[in-house]
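W.,

You were right to be curious about this one. When I first looked at the sequence I had no strong expectations either way, so I just let the prediction run and decided to look at it fresh. Below is the sequence, 466 residues in total, followed by the output.
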Amino acid sequence: MMAFYTKEERSKMAVGLFSLLLVAVMMRLFYLQVISHAAYTQVAEENYIRVVPLEAPRGLLYDRNGKLLVSNRPSYSIYFIPYQIKNPEEAFKDLSLKLNLSLATPSQLLRGQSKSKYQPIRLLRDVDFKTICVLEENSLDLPGIIYQVERARKYPPRGRGSHLLGYVAEISEAELTRFSHLGYRSGDLMGKKGVERQYDYLLRGQPGVIYLKVTAQGRILGPAGSREPVPPKPGVDNRLTIDWELQSVAESLIAFYGSGAAVAVDPKSGEILALVSQPNFDPNLFTGVLLDTVWQRLASDSLHPLLNRCLQGTYPPASTFKILTAAAGLESGRVTTRTLFRTCRGGLAFGNRVFKCWRPQGHGQLTLMDAIAQSCDIYFYQLGEEIGLDLWSDYARRSFFGRLTGIDLPSELSGIIPSRAYFDEEYGEGKWTRTLIVNLAIGQGEILVTPQQMADFYAPIANVGE
């Protein structure tokens, strides 16, 4: 049977249903206005607040006497804001034509960035004032394209100290993958060579951020009072052991010869006073837009200006290595300072080959001390034969050849100190002649050392072992 409700009962049911709806609406309002207030406020703010990253002032570099070597200067960077650009590909093409500059694609720039479409992303760094003027003149036609005053590195003129100081440039994709856990982001500056690379973690500081109110058209209204700015933390200044006056003199002298290297060491402390590699390069080229033509010129130069010859150049040390051969003989007791070998007459046969002295008429019969003074090849050929490959190789390695010196600069090479195992691997076990030590004893043959290694070796000799 169908149930019938009285008028009073129907009224009560209507009131109850209305009350339930009212409670539901109030609960929803409470959820929106109280519980979710912060989240919805953030969403609303993102529609009119621009997040502007602030680069930290990079630490300065000084020489040992307090002379400023590397500083920061004002520069302009161009950014784009993704949410204000409806067709990025078309906008970038238009911008490239107006500025007469080649640009990366939007997809390349967005790779590795945060997913917020409201955060500006750097497009170009260290552009000139003329470019900024063109951008300002066309601002209405280029919505979402803005510029900002930042800092760029300022290095000494004429490439002075370039291999020592290094340079900074934007982090590469490979570096970003490797170092993202250290807080690096796409577009960040990173030390690439020299001191800038070695101490990047100290020099870079910590970036900050400010929040600006903007209109829908991108016009800045002022600071967003609802969000506190985060000031950047400056990088740490560094004082080097380099004496810049000595460095400059050495640079001028080596540059006269076109290419070469020089390392000056304080023999008492081991501190590096000068480190010169020529030809050099201008680190200021890397602070902004590096043209492909400039990079190709540097990379294809037959004199390799980007090579740090002090640490990466490996060369046969020639007669400068005779001191090590003499020291190995003396410390092992194989010879004394007055030991005599066969007379130098300009050449001497070892096996089926005649090895010659640099002085065709010869030096006569010499003691070890005389042989060092005259740099007699014949004497040191015989000394090398006397001490043998194993002792010579072991002594060279104990003198820190054939391994890294540990200098606090990147990309150092260890060089080569041949040993019995080395020759067995190169030529086959026992298939090499024992007279190879004859050449090695005068710093020739398959021996390679760096100028830095030689400077470190001679420093204790200069201070008489103290």
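Here's what jumped out at me. The mean pLDDT is 86. And, maybe more interesting for your project: The first helix runs from residue 7 to 35.

Coffee later to discuss?

I.
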